Structure to design on (509 residues):
């Protein structure tokens, strides 16, 4: 069976996705798995939801060896107890049913020889269990796609067979750990081969000439449970459930899987419960027909109940852990908030520090320019502060600065920002204030200083005066916030040169 034009394109695309060394090695492999024409025709029949068992029988009987294998399976001990031996392909297909027929065909074509306890056998056992799971799920979620669900689950890991035949020694080491989670397995494959078995499997399926929907399904078979397509969900769930089935601790593995499903909300719990009804019997029947012994750790209903109980316990433990973590997070956030506040505050005056003043002024400057609003700044310098320090000492100077900080905090609005710019210099940022309203604030500060002493020394009041400069965004062509501060600073120095104790407005004095 040759490749169609569209398949040629798909095959070329998948070949380009493989590292060159891997693609070359796969093509050179003389033992690469292959499907004869009859198997490809059977898979084509399986794609049709209207296919009958007689359709399968007509295709299978074209291959005498496959027909003999199918009749032998139908005449196995499971069926001969109460029935006459089958003699034709149709009788065998009718007795086996769709799932067993498909499994027998693919088993005969992909595993025509007895296999030992190796990775290939483990892969085929997993595929059989996954196929039974996919078929049972499909009967509930998408009955028209039961046949294709079974087939795709059987084929989802064929890439492992290709890797095993191409790199037998390295693959044997890689796949030696029987119960390695598939996510870790694909990571190990990518690390060693530059690709994983889903990509290699899709490439092999395209090389065989399988229809593109099968190729794409294999390519995406391990992509997670978030999908609205129920047939895709059946396929992607089948492998992880088979992994849980073979896990040494199946209840725990299944509980983890149920937790993942609960998070996605893609599969109703009644579908999970129905899946585990008589699941061991169906797996046993199929694996016995194919001479693949699969040990069942416990009754499937007990397995599901134990997994659900473990999930409940995990949820309780997780809730307690999350509560503790949330408390720690809240404490940390409070601590970080306190640190952030402290990083903005001048420790002596409890006003904003210079860094915070400059950051806020930069943001306000940009915002006012963008929105066509105004703003003003008031630059304040306490007069003769060095002389006060020299006369009364630095402790007294610090008390004056502290008291003046409280004064500014009491006279400014909540939307304003007052801060210590450095030494005895202070800055007030006044969003939406003109030079005139900013001057009114400066006058209130001057009046307060004139009427209220900063300290009493030996019962004598100590008054402080200030030189203040004002600059408004509307009163100059300021290109940045630095120029606005400089204008207010220059206005303040005009007052200091004029004898101190006064207010000057940029552009007006």
């Amino acid at each position: 069976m040759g490749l169609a034009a569209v398949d040629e394109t798909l095959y070329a695309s998948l070949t380009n996705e493989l590292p060159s060394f891997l693609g070359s090695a796969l093509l050179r492999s003389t033992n690469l798995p292959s499907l004869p024409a009859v198997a490809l025709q059977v898979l084509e029949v399986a794609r049709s939801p209207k296919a009958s068992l007689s359709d399968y029988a007509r295709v299978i009987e074209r291959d005498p060896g496959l027909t003999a294998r199918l009749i032998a399976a139908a005449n196995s001990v499971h069926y001969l107890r109460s029935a006459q031996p089958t003699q034709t392909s149709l009788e065998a297909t009718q007795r086996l049913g769709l799932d067993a027929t498909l499994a027998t065909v693919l088993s005969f074509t992909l595993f025509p020889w007895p296999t030992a306890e190796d990775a290939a056998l483990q892969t085929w056992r997993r595929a059989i269990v996954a196929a039974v799971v996919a078929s049972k799920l499909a009967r509930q979620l998408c009955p028209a796609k039961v046949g294709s669900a079974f087939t795709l689950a059987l084929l989802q890991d064929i890439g492992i067979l290709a890797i095993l035949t191409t790199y037998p020694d390295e693959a044997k080491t890689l796949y030696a750990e029987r119960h390695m989670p598939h996510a870790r397995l694909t990571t190990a494959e990518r690390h060693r081969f530059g690709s994983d078995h889903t990509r290699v499997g899709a490439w092999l399926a395209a090389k065989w000439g399988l229809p593109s929907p099968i190729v794409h399904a294999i390519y995406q078979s391990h992509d997670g449970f978030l999908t609205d397509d129920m047939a895709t969900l059946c396929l992607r769930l089948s492998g992880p459930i088979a992994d849980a089935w073979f896990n040494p601790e199946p209840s725990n593995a299944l509980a983890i899987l149920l937790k993942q499903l609960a998070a996605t909300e893609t599969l109703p719990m009644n579908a999970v419960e129905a899946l585990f009804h008589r699941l061991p019997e169906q797996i046993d029947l199929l694996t016995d027909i194919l001479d693949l012994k699969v040990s069942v750790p416990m009754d499937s209903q007990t397995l599901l109940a134990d997994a659900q109980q473990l999930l409940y316990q995990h949820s309780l433990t997780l809730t307690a852990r999350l509560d503790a973590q949330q408390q720690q997070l809240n404490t940390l956030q409070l601590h970080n908030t306190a640190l952030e506040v402290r990083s903005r505050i001048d420790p002596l005056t409890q006003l904003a520090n210079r860094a915070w003043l400059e950051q806020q002024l930069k943001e306000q400057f940009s915002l006012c320019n963008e929105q066509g609003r105004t703003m003003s700044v008031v630059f304040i310098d306490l007069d003769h502060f060095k002389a006060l320090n020299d006369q009364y000492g630095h402790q007294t100077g610090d008390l004056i600065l502290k008291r003046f900080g409280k004064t500014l905090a009491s006279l400014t609005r909540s939307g304003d920002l007052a801060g210590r710019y450095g030494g005895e210099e202070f800055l007030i940022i006044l969003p939406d204030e003109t030079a005139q309203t900013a001057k009114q604030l400066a006058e209130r500060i001057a009046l307060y200083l004139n009427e209220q002493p900063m300290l009493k020394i030996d019962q004598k009041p100590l008054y402080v005066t200030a030189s203040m400069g004002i600059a408004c965004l509307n009163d100059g062509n300021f290109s940045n916030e630095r120029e606005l501060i400089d204008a207010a600073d220059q206005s303040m120095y005009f007052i200091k040169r004029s004898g101190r104790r006064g207010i000057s407005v940029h552009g007006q004095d």
